[in-house]
Design goal:
The complex is a heterodimer of chains A (294) and B (156). Chain A contains 12 helices and 5 strands. With 294 residues, chain A is mainly alpha-helical. Chain A folds into 2 domains: 147 residues; 117 residues, Cytochrome Bc1 Complex, Chain D, domain 2 (Orthogonal Bundle), CATH 1.10.760. In chain A, the strands form 2 sheets. Chain A has a 3-stranded antiparallel β-sheet, with no helix packed on it. Chain A has a two-stranded antiparallel ribbon with strand order 4-5. In chain A, helix 10 packs across helix 12. The longest helix of chain A has 20 residues. Chain A is globular, with a radius of gyration of 20 Å. The N and C termini of chain A lie far apart (62 Å). Chain B is mostly helical and 156 residues long. Chain B has a single domain, classed as Cytochrome c/b562 (Four Helix Bundle (Hemerythrin (Met), subunit A)), CATH 1.20.120. Chain B is elongated. Chain B starts with a helix and ends in a 7-residue tail after the last helix. The model of chain B has no long low-confidence stretch (mean pLDDT 90). The chains are: A mainly alpha (294), B mainly alpha (156). At the A-B interface, strand 5, helix 10 and helix 11 of A face helix 1 and helix 5 of B.
């Protein structure tokens, strides 16, 4: 073997090892102490919008509690298909334990230790508290099981190599808060937590860069609509219509879907409002209070 | 056939081709205008109910009932003539945000419209029964608006 070959091989090995190290999936987070709270789990379920993506394609109303999966999400990287996350032990996630669930929601890592595609909005859920995620796990186990089998995503090379998503996570997953809110105001802090974390508002309302990560420097600055003409409106910055809305206006919009002009919510926001309508008035006011600081 | 006559026939024939779409466009735009007017009347009546729900004005049972009855009457209008084929955002971009799926997935839009009629009629029954009943009813009406605005309306 020539000296050059040995050098090239060594470089290749170092690159491979570095790639393996940089892209390694995270380990499950520690189990939070204390008892599980089902009522809070339901609140987290609603604000996190689990049913909007994981219910069966045409489910409405109560049927949305059957988390059978099957909805398709076409993107420029491929088509992602929401999996069955009902408590069915073989087709759903009934065979998981709390640590597995926390690793999935907070770290975006599957039972098999693979990275999930970020169509699953863990880049936002990473800001969720472990205790909220644990309550959510307790709540999901009370929902009806579905025996529908999950379909694989239709994603082409190179995005089909899940290991590479480790790099994406290094670039785009941050657990810290995004918006500075000054002195500690519990209403504002709650609003920030709901919007930046479980509510994952930024996933649609923040523009994405070429690698599909949210551009946090333009947090909630509006983005092109992923399915059809028009734009997902800005919630921050000079073009944000909500800047002219009052806190009560925003809270009412999140309850009934009516804007201050009494137009109604459309598109994907209808699903969001179906979820926020189930929150408490206090949580809707907290979200509105936070949005007004942007 | 002389040249002048040929030209004249050609001119008349061409006019027919040009004029027909112009008349059709006029009718289509009138239909779009009419349904936008209906939406405006919905919004105007809901605005009175919404102002009470938000606490911007005091709850008034008679005023709430009047607005909710108007809403129910508006929702009961037969809208078929306002939604002719070809008045979607693909055929008429910039004039309407109604997706072509509203027509291609018929009768889904009819079902959504029936749900909105029911929610408005239910609200009319309870709007005079106090603020909590009003708030609940508005929530249901808002949800029924989404029945069409989720699948059948483009983002702005």
């Amino acid at each position: 073997m020539s000296k050059t070959t040995i050098w090239l091989l060594s470089i290749a090995v170092v690159c491979a090892l570095t790639f393996q190290w940089v892209t390694a999936p995270a380990n499950p987070p520690a189990s939070p102490g204390g008892a599980r709270n089902l009522a809070n789990g339901e609140v987290v379920f609603n604000i996190a919008g689990c049913a909007s993506c994981h219910s069966a394609p045409k489910a409405e109303g109560e049927e949305k509690l059957l988390l059978a999966g099957g909805k398709r999400f076409p993107t420029e990287f491929g088509v992602f298909i929401a999996p069955n996350i009902s408590p069915d032990p073989s087709q759903g996630i009934g065979g998981w334990n709390e640590a597995t669930f926390l690793n999935a929601v907070l770290n975006g890592v599957s039972l098999e230790g693979e990275h999930y595609y970020p169509a699953f909005p863990y880049a936002s859920y990473a800001r969720m508290t472990a205790s909220d995620a644990a309550d959510l796990w307790a709540y999901i186990q009370t929902l009806p099981p579905s025996s529908a089998s999950s379909q694989p995503s239709e994603v082409g090379f190179p995005f089909s190599i899940r290991r590479g998503l480790g790099l994406w996570k290094r670039l785009h997953v941050r657990t810290g808060s995004i918006q500075e809110i000054g002195e500690a105001d519990p209403v504002l802090a709650r609003g920030r937590y709901l919007v930046e974390g479980p509510g994952h508002c930024g996933e649609c309302h923040t523009p994405r860069d070429i690698s599909g990560g949210m551009v946090l420097a333009n947090w909630l600055g509006g983005a092109p609509s992923p399915d059809g003409p028009g734009r997902i409106p800005a919630l921050a910055g000079p073009n944000a219509k909500v800047g002219e809305w009052s806190v009560v206006d925003i809270a009412e919009y999140l309850r009934s879907g009516f804007t201050p002009e009494y137009d109604s919510a459309g598109g994907a926001m209808v699903d969001v409002i179906e979820n926020t309508a189930k929150l408490s008035d206090e949580d809707r006011m907290a979200i509105a209070t936070y949005l007004k600081t942007l | 056939m002389n040249r002048t006559l040929k030209t004249a026939i050609l001119a008349v024939a061409t006019m027919g081709f040009v004029a027909a779409p112009v008349f059709a466009d006029k009718a289509a735009e009138k239909a779009i205008g009419a349904r936008k007017a209906q939406m405006q009347l919905y919004a105007f009546n809901i605005s009175h109910l919404g102002a009470m729900a938000k606490g911007e004005v005091d709850y008034d049972a008679a005023a709430a009932s009047a607005a909710a009855n108007n809403l129910a009457a508006l929702a009961a209008l037969n809208g078929m003539a306002m939604w002719p084929q070809g008045t979607d955002s693909t055929a008429m971009p910039g004039k309407t945000r109604a997706k072509v799926e509203a027509w291609t997935t018929w009768p889904k839009i009819g079902e959504a419209s029936a749900a909105m009629k029911k929610a408005s009629a239910d609200l009319a029954l309870v709007a005079g029964d106090g603020l909590d009943a009003l708030r609940g009813g508005i929530g249901d009406v808002g949800k029924s608006c989404g029945g069409c605005h989720k699948p059948f309306r483009d983002e702005e």
